[in-house]
Amino acid sequence: MTTAVVRYTAAAVTDRGRKRPSNEDAFGFSVEAGVYVVCDGMGGAAAGEIASSLAVDEVLRLLKTRKQENEAELPAAAESAVTAANEAIFSRAQRNHRLNGMGTTLVVMTTEEQHVWILNIGDSRCYLTRKGKLEQLTQDHSLVEEQVRLGRMTPLEALHSPLKNVITRALGTQSQVRPDVFKLEAEAGDIFLLCSDGLTRELPDNTIEALLNCDLQLDAMAARLVEAAKKAGGHDNITCVLVRAEA
Fold first, then answer.
1. Which end of the chain is more exposed for a tag (fewer CB within 10 A), N or C?
2. pTM of the shown model
3. What's 12's domain CATH number?
4. Is 189 helix (H, G, I), strand (E, B) or coil?
């Protein structure tokens, strides 16, 4: 019999990495409201930073200020927040031609007691470590990952493909976009990892799994994940948010 989850703890680290001049990732969370967000911006000049920050701020604002929802209403509220974030980015770009085409990936986790919903757009990911085993919960909206799922490309070919940066779905680049939504029941001891591709491009799943099984506080664990990605190359901005479910 599993122990009921009654609370969550969280920690986060972001780093521009070793190659990029700035950090276009953004993150935010509220343990009290049960919402955790990671975004990876794209676009020229500072547009990527603007898009990712707008998305995080809008999703957090709407889900933190929502009235207490019942279980059936929470995923709809989360989808509405993502829709509002998309509209905010898209309309900002329409008003300023220098921001034209800006967008961002997004992965959101929202909780209500043991109930967990994950929403994602793009190739920022959510993983779950349960009883020592790592599982990727989201599916990338990227050209190479879609080719892998169709059996037209191997994971190794995808890793080295010149098309690996091509995103097939992003927040803010079009007037409408829909996230994928996943639901699961958390168990005490679960650790969720929300991260940008600056982490997953550098570290294979078995390395991430090993680092998440270290007996460390969440903030130290997050810092070790980011440092490992930097040592492996640090070619992109790196962000991870860790959330632990506790009894």
1. N
2. 0.94
3. 3.60.40.10
4. coil
